[in-house]
Write a structure and sequence with these properties.
Blueprint: H1 3-16, E1 19-24, H2 27-30, H3 49-52, H4 55-60, H5 62-76, H6 83-94, E2 97-102, H7 108-111, E3 117-119, E4 122-129, E5 135-137, E6 156-160, H8 169-180, E7 184-188, H9 200-206, E8 210-215, E9 227-230, H10 233-240
Parallel strand pairs: 1-2, 1-7, 2-3, 7-8, 8-9
Antiparallel strand pairs: 4-5, 4-6
Bound molecules: ligand BV8 and zinc ion.
């Protein structure tokens, strides 16, 4: 089916939906200029996220890991939400029950006005003390390389979930509850490679949701979804709300 007719099917499902869950990945921010993880522009000094976004990398070389995050903070500070973020934020008013689950740490959903959301991998503007564990917002650009806690002078780390670290229990609870009670689940701009988020589509599907994938390419979970809308999130997502 061409995107046109499948778009009508998705619009129809959404018009009848009372409960909607949206799961987003780096692809929704690509249209704002934030590099994706596995796209060609996703690299930094030839490092991969899996090499730097780990507690082991931070223990071994906190300076290098902070240089990477500083580079991303400086880049993200110059970006703003795109029409896909704005459309997702608007969905909070459109559906009786709505929840956004984002894997992105760039904060662009919040900037677009989303409030009913779980940032399941954390937020690049939040830091956590490795000693007293206090979590604070830090918008310094650049951030001091090896930033220290104002309370106890402990070394601060990004308040981000690294590979090998567990997601916050309340994020898992909230996400699971939303996925299991949704009429429609939109999966936008994620390669479906990183767990547990990569399993969220299947949870929604098993619970009876109509699952829609919006992505430039096909992904690991394309075989699972009911409908795939191929294209850029900034072009497609705003069309979903048109009655
Ligand atoms: C966990 C924070 C329990 C970093 C991220 C071995 C040891 C330990 C763990 C594991 C292991 N093997 C597997 C695991 C589990 C691991 C995992 O899944 N690894 C993968 C690589 C196999 N997961 C974990 O470790 C998780 N924790 O399992 O805890 C546990 C505890 C201890 C031991 C074992 C298990 C934690 C995962 C969280 C990792 N942190 N981010 C940071 O951001 O600084 S994940 C990182 O990748 C990003 O946050 C991102 O969200 C995520 C996924 O990437 P995507 O968002 O999908 O982005 P990607 O570039 O891949 O794809 C973009 C997509 O968009 C593409 O499909 C593209 O086509 C599309 N696109 C591009 N442009 C557009 C577009 N679509 C639409 N429009 C466009 N314009
Ligand atoms: Zn501290």
């Amino acid at each position: 089916m061409g995107t046109g007719s499948t778009l009508d099917v998705v619009r129809h499902k959404l018009s009848a939906a009372r409960s909607v869950t949206v799961l987003t990945g780096a692809g929704i921010s690509a249209d704002s200029g934030v590099p994706t993880f596995r796209g060609t522009d996703g690299l930094w000094r030839n490092f991969r996220a899996e090499d730097l976004a780990t507690p082991e990398a931070f223990a071994r070389d906190p300076r290098l890991v902070w240089q990477w995050y500083n580079w991303r903070r400086e880049l993200i500070a110059t970006t703003r939400p795109n029409p896909a973020h704005e459309a997702v934020a608007h969905m909070e008013q459109r559906f009786e029950r709505f929840w956004l689950i984002t894997q992105n740490v760039d904060g662009l959903h919040r900037d677009a006005g989303s409030r009913q959301l779980s940032e399941i991998h954390g937020n690049i503007w939040m830091v956590r003390c490795t000693v007293c564990r206090r979590v604070t917002e830090n918008r310094d650009v650049p951030i001091a390389i090896l930033p220290l806690c104002k309370l106890c002078s402990g070394l601060l780390r990004p308040h981000i979930v690294w590979f090998g670290e567990s997601l916050a229990e309340d994020d898992l609870q909230t996400s699971g509850a939303s996925l299991k009670t949704s009429d429609v689940c939109l999966i936008i701009g994620t390669s479906g490679l990183v767990y547990p988020a990569a399993g969220f589509g299947a949870i929604a599907k098993q619970a009876g949701a109509f699952v829609v994938e919006i992505n430039l390419d096909s992904t690991q979970q394309s075989s699972l979804v009911d409908v795939t809308l191929q294209g850029r999130a900034k072009d497609i997502v705003p069309l979903l709300l048109q009655t």
